[in-house]
Design goal:
This protein has 241 residues and is an alpha/beta fold. The protein contains seven helices and 15 strands. It is globular and about 50 Å long. It has helices at 40-49, 67-70, 73-80, 88-94, 109-120, 193-205, 225-240; strands at residues 2-5, 8-10, 20-23, 29-32, 59-61, 84-87, 129-131, 136-137, 140-144, 153-157, 162-166, 169-172, 180-184, 212-215, 221-222.
């Protein structure tokens, strides 16, 4: 586990998606996202290596409902008593009370296959607390940026300037996320790509400040992140003209 910006640490060994630990000390230790179920042993091993038992965590915050981020949520809830929190709109899909939008209809053959896999093996659970836009939990502001999923959120930590962005803003290029690049919500894996991009633009237009980006895929962007993100997005807009 590597510290990014105190109190945030990035769980190592996770290849599918990023998992972060907000370590505010005993009684204030939160996971942000839980990784895919196929990487459960890596997650548990990394926690053990730091001397933390899953049951000692305060809770789990989900940036969104996709299985590469929420895939271990039900397990942690069931086996270790971890409270799971996410936005109300995604909570309704996770517990089956709202319809599940389907992926796998756009993109390359690989992207369509990954989308079909998500359709077939989605994360399912009943969350313990549904969040709303404007809530504050664990010192994190909840910002709804719907589009990638119905309830995708940013978690903004004002004291450190850290912004946890899930898949609405990435620092690697999908689908394999090997190459680093600032990327807004990817079309093949998003329910409403124009909506997600518009929400990201509105977030910036509102003047919300941040210094570091901790994305769901890609390496953390530490220092001057807002300016770097804005410049990258502007270059992409120019190239599309």
């Amino acid at each position: 586990m590597k510290r990014v910006v105190a109190p945030f640490h990035r769980i190592g060994r996770m290849l599918v998606s990023n998992v972060y630990l907000l370590d505010g000390g005993p009684g204030d230790r939160w996971l942000i996202d839980s990784g895919h179920w196929s990487e459960r042993w890596q997650l548990l091993a990394e926690l053990r290596a730091t001397g933390l038992r899953p049951g000692e965590l305060t809770g789990l915050l989900l940036t969104h409902r996709h299985s590469d981020h929420a895939g271990n949520a039900a397990y942690l809830q069931r086996e270790h008593g971890l409270r799971v929190l996410c936005h109300r709109a995604d909570a309704a899909v996770l517990d089956g009370s709202a319809p599940r939008g389907r992926l796998g209809v756009r993109g390359s053959a690989l992207e369509r296959a990954l989308g079909a896999f998500e359709n077939a093996f989605p994360a399912r659970l009943r969350v313990d607390q549904a969040l709303e836009h404007g809530d504050v939990v664990a010192g994190l502001e909840v910002h709804l940026l719907a589009g990638h999923t119905e309830g995708s959120v940013f978690f903004r930590h004002e004291p450190t300037g850290c912004l946890l962005t899930g898949d609405t803003l990435l620092t690697a290029r999908p689908p394999l996320t090997i190459l680093g690049a600032v990327t807004p919500a990817h079309d093949a894996f998003s329910l409403d790509t124009p909506g997600a991009h518009a929400a990201l633009d509105a977030f910036h237009a509102a003047g919300w400040r941040y210094e570091h980006v901790l994305a769901g895929h890609g390496s953390p962007m530490v220092g001057d992140a807002r300016a770097r993100v804005m410049a990258a997005l502007d270059r992409q807009r120019v190239s599309r003209r």
